[in-house]
Backbone:
């Protein structure tokens, strides 16, 4: 059973930064494309970013290009999402997910973490 665990969420002031982590146990993330998604209250889940299993391809939602950066540390079996210049509208539960090939669509991902809350507020 593939298990993903997100961490790094919290309360941050507008303009601040957070780094989210997506860790796995019992299997190597290197065989999977990893996507980050978020869901705000009353809104549909939306794609944020994704990275291919070979790290050769990354995806960012248009509204998040230049603000978020996805990366992978194979030694730590972890994928990160660096979030800068955070705005109140970035407030959401952030999820990571895994599948065999990179995609920005949440419908295509097979394995999901439980999510981590990010709140941007002064």
Residues:
């Amino acid at each position: 059973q593939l298990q993903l665990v997100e961490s790094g969420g919290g309360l941050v002031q507008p303009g601040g930064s957070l780094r989210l982590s997506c860790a796995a146990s019992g299997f190597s993330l290197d065989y999977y494309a990893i996507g980050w998604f978020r869901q705000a209250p009353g809104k549909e889940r939306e794609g944020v970013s994704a990275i291919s299993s070979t790290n050769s391809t990354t995806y960012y939602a248009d509204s998040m290009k230049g603000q978020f950066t996805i990366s992978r540390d194979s030694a730590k079996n972890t994928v990160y999402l660096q979030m800068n210049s955070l705005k109140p509208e970035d407030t959401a539960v952030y999820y990571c997910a895994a599948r065999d090939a990179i995609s920005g669509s949440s419908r295509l991902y097979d394995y999901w973490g439980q999510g981590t809350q990010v709140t941007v507020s002064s």
